[in-house]
Amino acid sequence: LLVLDPDGPAGAASLGRLAGRHPLPATVTAVTGNAEAAHTHHFYRLPAGVRAVPRPLRSAPGFAEFPAVDVKGSGGYVVGAGSVHASGGVYRWEREPASIDDCTPAPDWMLRLLCEPERTEYA
Fold this sequence. Notes:
With 123 residues, the chain is α+β, with helices and mostly antiparallel strands. The protein is built from two helices and nine strands; from the N terminus they run E-H-E-E-E-E-E-E-E-H-E. A hairpin with an 8-residue loop joins strand 2 (28-31) and strand 3. The protein is globular, with a radius of gyration of 14 Å.
């Protein structure tokens, strides 16, 4: 999976500007438990052999003008629905998915600009 994680109003504004440059198809979305400010997680499905590189979006080449949005992927994590945030809010799905197949496939621009081939590392 590749998850876009906008942080509060600044992240929502960045995500809106991003949608003006690149298609952001509707997908499975979770609402975080932060009771002080609305936050969301947008889940996109990746093809086999591809991994999202976890980092702040603005650190990816060509995305400096999009602060307060994180890319979550291999080696990163998001807190799951049903968890309780330190503020007391509960993480929840906007509409609970039946399976990972409910996540929209990541658009080509995400694959090209935010992902890399999956690594096979052995200890």
